[in-house]
Amino acid sequence: MDDDRSSRMHARVTYRSDRWYLEDCDSLNGTQVNSQPAQQTVLEAGDLIRIGDRLILYVDDAAGQGPTDVQTSLFRATTHGGKHLADTGSLIEESVSESISRVVRDSAVLCRLANLLHQHTDSEVLIKSAIDALVDGVDADAVSIWLVAADGRLRCAGRWGQDHDEHLLASLAVEKDKAILVEDPSDSGNSSVVDSPAHVGTALGAPIPGPKSCRGAIECHRLTQRGPFSRSDLDFAVVVAHQTGLTLENLEHRERLELANAELHRRLAAQTRLIGSSPAMQTVLDQIARVGPASSTVLILGDSGTGKELVARSIHDLSRNIAGPYVTVNCAAFSESLLESELFGHEVGAFTGADRRHIGQFERAHRGTIFLDEVGEMSMACQAKVLRVLEGHPFERLGGDDTINVDVRVIAATHRDLPELIAQRQFREDLYYRLRVIDIHTPSLRDRGDDVIELASLFVEVFRKQMGRGPSRLSKEAIEAIRNYNWPGNVRELKNAVERAIVMGQDEEVQVNDLGLPNQLEGDGTGPQLTSLKDAERRHIQYVLKRCKGNKSQACRILEIGRATLYSKLNG
Question: Where are the domains of the chain?
Answer without folding.
Answer: 11-95, 100-252, 275-443, 469-571
